[in-house]
Amino acid sequence: MSHCRKFIDAPLTRREMLSRCANGFGAVALSALLAERGYDLLAGENAPAAGPDGPAGRVNPFEPHPGHFPAKAKNVIFLYMDGGPSQVDTFDPKPLLTQYNGKPYPSKIEPTQFNNVGKSLGSPWKFKPYGQCGTPVSDLFPHVAQHVDDICVVRSMVSMFSEHTFANYFLHSGSGIQGRPSMGSWVNYGLGTACRDLPGFIVLNGGLIPPGGYDNFNSGFLPATYQASVFSARGEPVANVRPTERTAGLQQNKMQLMRELDQMALKRMGDLDPLESAIANYEMAARMQTAVPNLMNLSDETAETLELYGIKDKFGNTQTYGKICLLARRLVERGVRFIELTCTSGNGDRWDQHGGLRAGHQKNALSVDRPIAGLLTDLKRRGLLDSTLVVFAGEFGRTPFAQGSDGRDHNPFGFSIWLAGGGIKGGMTYGETDEFGYRAIRDRVEIHDLHATMLHLLGIDHKRLTFRFSGRDMRLTDVKGNVVTQILA
Predict the structure, then answer these.
(1) Is 40 helix (H, G, I), strand (E, B) or coil?
(2) CB within 8 A of 444, min separation 6: which ones?
(3) What torsion do the CA atoms of 349, 352, 356, 359 make, to the nearest 10 degrees?
(4) What CA–CA distance (Å, rounded) separates 276 from 265?
(5) How many domains does the chain have?
(6) What is the rounded distance in angstroms from the CA atom of residue 213 to the CA atom of residue 168?
(7) How many Cβ atoms sit within 10 Å of the Cβ of residue 300?
(8) Up-side HSE of residue 310: CA atoms within 13 Å toward CB?
């Protein structure tokens, strides 16, 4: 290296010497391994999708990679119902509970967070059967109800936590503690993304970030490349994604300089995952400067499509949720792997009605019912529903007895979610709660089972999707989880 000769090159430190030698010996070993195993890790051909031989050896973390077996679903849209909708008011009718309305609850009551236990509370909404399958749905969801022949309602979900923050971490990451990778991060770690210009894991923020905050969408101990990017339906779509220079040429020169400096550091220090992730994220951000405005521009959508999603609805929250549902479809079309939608603001207290059940659930349902139905209709008519897994779930359900006089407490012992598309058997219900809708009594489905099933539909064996951390191979499903084969098409 040439310089002004006013200083001398510093000698190699012991750390640098070992790093350079290790990289050299590693290259020799790698060449032998490549010849012996017969595939090219750099191209990702035939490389396993998970484990120490898969993503850990990838040069480009954004490139698509094969799964463990053929997938039914290519993308996931996770409709997160923040706060926990009541199963007995939505998808799990309980006639006996209606008969006991206003009477003392006749069965054992588990300890709850607040313990302000009132009388039995029958649903204020009526249920009726829909579709050829006859699945009953409450009057809260008249539009979603039209799609029950494509939906599997799981009535026997259970969770380990009855408090929002821990339950949110558990639903999103398979662990009730902070700092673990979100399921969207795991999916992209295993499969990469088919979209070059957008991240593989995107959260469409309708206005409410759930309790537990952005750690629900974190990459945890996985490389930072796999954490979610949060897009907003209001105002600037993505913070700090706009070009910072006056002209495109200056911006490109700046990015080129950053690339050269990063490559110099890599050559000097060797393979550093945090630095490689930063490089990949900078380059992705540069491409997003063009891709995001195009994504958010809905001028190419027809008036019929905007109406279908409720974007012209008189209720502002329906408009907002309709927009992010439409954006979810546009992201699927662009190859984004995992898309999560959060709830809209302005509804009072999410789905978390400890009081004012009728008004709160009515507003929340009004916000999401028509847009979700529009999303299912649009995906299906475009031929995308078969390859897109749609999941509707909250972190837990609610009690069949009142909290006070007009609310329901948290209930992790038995609640309902639903899935559609992407290899799911539609027109069915699975599992059962007791006659009051309090506890799951048949075909219990745990959060780990849900995650295992979602990964299976994406072509991933959840037991093989691992990352070495803290001395052991970690996975989304920990040491649990079974694929719920009965709900697969």
Answers:
(1) coil
(2) 156, 158, 431
(3) 70
(4) 10
(5) 2
(6) 9
(7) 8
(8) 24
Q: What is the largest CA-CA distance in the chain?
A: 92
Q: Looking at residue 456, which CATH number applies to its domain? A: 3.40.720.10
Comparing CA positions, the residue from 220, 208, 210, 209 lying closest to residue 177 is 220
Q: Is 474 helix (H, G, I), strand (E, B) or coil?
A: strand
pTM score, whole prediction: 0.82
Same domain membership, residue 366 and residue 468: yes
Q: Residue 183: exposed, middle, or buried by beta-carbon count in 10 A (0-12, 13-18, 19+)? A: buried
Question: Per this entry, what is the length of the chain?
Answer: 489
pLDDT at 437: 98
Tokens of 20: 């350079």
Regarding whether 410 and 320 lie in a shared domain, the answer is: yes
User: What does DSSP say about strands 201-205 and 338-341: parallel, antiparallel, or unpaired?
Assistant: parallel
Instruction: Please indicate, yes or no, whether residues 18 and 87 belong to a single structural domain of this protein.
Output: no
Confidence band of 149 (pLDDT split at 50, 70, 90): very high
Is residue 255 a contact partner of residue 283, using CB atoms and an 8 Å limit?
Answer: yes
pLDDT in tens, 73-110: 999 999 999 999 999 999 999 999 999 999 999 999 99
453, part of any domain = yes
